[in-house]
Amino acid sequence: MPRLVKLACLLSLGVFASCSNFDYRWASTPMPQSTNPSALADGKWEGDWQSDATDYHGHVQAIILHTTQSISPDGKIVQQYQAAFRLRYLEIGYTEFTLNLNATKLDDGRIHFEGKKDMGYFFGGIMRVDGFVYPGKAELYCDYNHNKDSGTYKMNRLVQDLQ
Fold first, then answer.
1. What CA–CA distance (Å, rounded) separates 18 from 36?
2. Is the pTM for the entire model greater than 0.90?
3. How far apart (Å, rounded) are the C-alpha atoms in residues 75 and 115?
4. Which CATH number fits domain 20-157: 3.30.1380, 2.60.120, 2.40.128, 1.10.1660?
5. In Å, what is the CA distance from 115 to each residue of 56, 130, 131?
């Protein structure tokens, strides 16, 4: 019995003392003083997510960083981003995932992006995201859907306050 108690104590210490990779990346990603004109979706984003299936809503954070740039067959510049998301459930539990986004700048200045990721069978299969960044307002709106759920992420870019 004492061995089982020691094991339980060690496991609980590991769970409560650990930080995820997302925590480390969030803390080490600096907030920009202004928008990067060559990568308009770059930065830390924070806001809310809402499930259409359950009406549940919670806190969402994202770290979006540009990776590469290419030219599409129709001649438009396509910027690739890596986006790491953390969605909170009841402010107790959370889920984290990373996906790649392809983004193009529209004539009205918005950035349209889309991406997909296989979340696995138990988490709804292939998740697709489709959204927009409004650079002048520092706002991001994104719709997601997969086999088990669909909904929306609404976030604002965190920018360093210079005052």
1. 33
2. no
3. 20
4. 2.40.128
5. 23, 7, 9
Residue with tokens 């669909």: 150
Domain limits, the chain: 20-157
pLDDT one digit per residue (tens) for the chain, 163 residues: 555 444 444 444 334 444 578 888 888 777 765 555 556 788 899 999 999 988 888 999 999 998 999 888 888 889 999 999 998 887 778 889 999 999 999 989 899 999 999 988 887 889 999 999 987 888 999 999 998 889 999 999 987 765 5
Q: Which amino acid is at 55?
A: D
